[in-house]
Amino acid sequence: MSFLERHPEKPLLANRRLRAVIGVVVLALLAVPFVTTDALTGLILTGLVFVMLGVSWNLLAGYAGQISLGHAAFFGMGAFVAAWLTTPSAAGFPASIQLPILVAVVVGGVAAALIALIIGPIIFRLSGHYFAIGTLALAAVIELVMLDQRSLTGGSTGYYVQGDLAINDFVGHGDVMFLLTLVATVLTIAVTYRIVRGAGGLGMKAIHDDEEAASSLGVNPLKYKMYAFVVSSFFAGLAGGLYGHYTLYINPESTLAVTWTIDSLVIVILGGMGTFAGPILGSALFLLLDTGLAAIVGSVATTIEGTLIILFIIFLPQGLYGLAEDYLITDVGRGGASAAPKSSDATPGTDPDVVSDED
């Protein structure tokens, strides 16, 4: 008997056993800042940020089929806009625009979404590899501009962000930011899940599988590309604002670094692109690899990590979700249980949580 049973008329999330596991994980995460060290709390918060980045990037790339290499730009701009609103004096803005951290972080996400809304119709004139290169170039231009504007960003030295959400001596600023990031992560997952299982998700899957065929059937490709792009950018900006106000320091070279995009891509590849649970599983594995290998083998950790990722791509192209689907999930038909199909054979019509990679 498998760990989970999936019925054709119900989503996998309807499984009570899976819901129980999710509940236990969330409760355990709620306790993290109160039962662990500050270093471990910061590490797990980084993992939550990875989940937000992975889930949001997967919405655009895995479901809508638009491989963006500019995700770091929206993460960084969300962080900077939020920082400008909580620490306006450091960027030369009047103190009258100062906002509470929570409001500023949300505005940072909205600002990232507005940037996507403005540049989307232009950048989506490109497709395929050209779109990927275009988004990478856009991110590089934004980073260079922000580096050059020392009065706004502090240049290469960056600047410290004001913020103190400490409740008392026991619950400090970092603890509150961790809990806010956890809430934002759950919100990101929930909203993305609703989108994927709704009409918007069907439109994204249609243009992912065959854009020309979808267009001939009345699906507007630009509409669903923009939908995915704007939502994805909002959550990336939200993650940036939260991370910046946890570390209380931002720097164009690190906050807007392309490594945030690479990390998002690797997380989705490890977990399973075009699968809903993939980025969550991939974030956990990536965090373990990134920190565990560094502690064990030191300077050669990056080389080993890269080798493991290549092996994943070759031998587990569907990622951890594909592995879990093969061994832990059984599809139950109306006539009884049947063996679970492999992720590579899944289509949007047979499994709402998986997007086919056959183009």
Mean pLDDT: 87
In total, the number of strands is 5
Strand order of the largest sheet: 1-4-5
Number of domains: 1
Overall 3D form: globular
Element-by-element helix/strand order? EHHHHHHEHHHHEHHHHHEE
Low-confidence stretches: 334-352
How would you describe the oligomerization state of the chains in this entry? single chain
Q: Whole-number radius of gyration?
A: 21 Å
Range of helix content: 55-70%
Strand content: under 5%
Largest β sheet strand count, sense and barrel closure: 3 strands, mixed
Structural class: mainly alpha
Number of helical segments with 4 or more residues: 15
Query: Alpha-carbon distance between the termini?
Result: 34 Å
Would you write up a description of this structure?
This protein is mainly α. It has one domain (4-257). 67% of the residues lie in helices and 4% in strands. It is built from 15 helices and five strands. The strands form two sheets. Strands 1-4-5 form a three-stranded mixed beta sheet. Strands 2-3 form a two-stranded antiparallel ribbon. Strand 4 (329-333) and strand 5 form a beta hairpin. The protein is globular, with a radius of gyration of 21 Å. The model is unreliable at 334-352 (pLDDT under 50).
Summarize the helices and strands and which ones pair or pack:
Layout: E1 4-6, H1 16-35, H2 38-63, H3 71-86, H4 101-123, H5 128-148, H6 150-153, E2 159-160, H7 173-197, H8 199-209, H9 211-216, H10 221-247, E3 249-250, H11 252-255, H12 259-271, H13 278-297, H14 301-315, H15 319-328, E4 329-333, E5 336-338
Helix pairs in contact: 1-7, 2-7, 2-10, 2-12, 2-13, 3-4, 3-5, 3-10, 4-10, 7-8, 7-10, 8-10, 12-13, 12-15, 13-14
